[in-house]
UniProtKB/TrEMBL annotation:
Belongs to the GFRP family. Its main location: cytoplasm. GO terms for biological process: negative regulation of biosynthetic process. This is GTP cyclohydrolase 1 feedback regulatory protein. Keywords: Cytoplasm, Membrane, Nucleus. SUPFAM superfamilies: GTP cyclohydrolase I feedback regulatory protein, GFRP. It comes from Anguilla anguilla (European freshwater eel). GO terms for cellular component: cytosol; nuclear membrane. It is found in: Cytoplasm, Cytosol; Nucleus membrane. InterPro entries: GFRP_sf, GTP_CycHdrlase_I_reg.
Amino acid sequence: MPYLLISTQIRLETGPTMVGDEYSDPDIMCQLGARKTCVLGNNFSEYHVDDPPRVVLNKLELIGYRVICMTGMGQTLAWCLHKATV
C-alpha cells in the first residue's frame, strides 16, 4: 500500500492522530502502535494513535514514507504520504 493519509483535529494537534482506515496494512499500523476503533454511529473503523502528528510523521519517514502534501480543511489537518515501490 504505497499511499497513506493521516489527520488530526486542529484543537488536538498533540494527539490523537488518525493513521488509517479499516483497510490499512496491519503491519504498518502495528509499527505505529495504532489501535482500531469504531466510533458509535459510524459504520466503519479507523486506526488511531495517541502520538501527535509530528511523531507519527517521523515514524513513517523511518519506514520509507514521504509527505506529498498537507492541507487544512475546516478544523482538520491532513497529510498524504507515499512510499515508493521497488
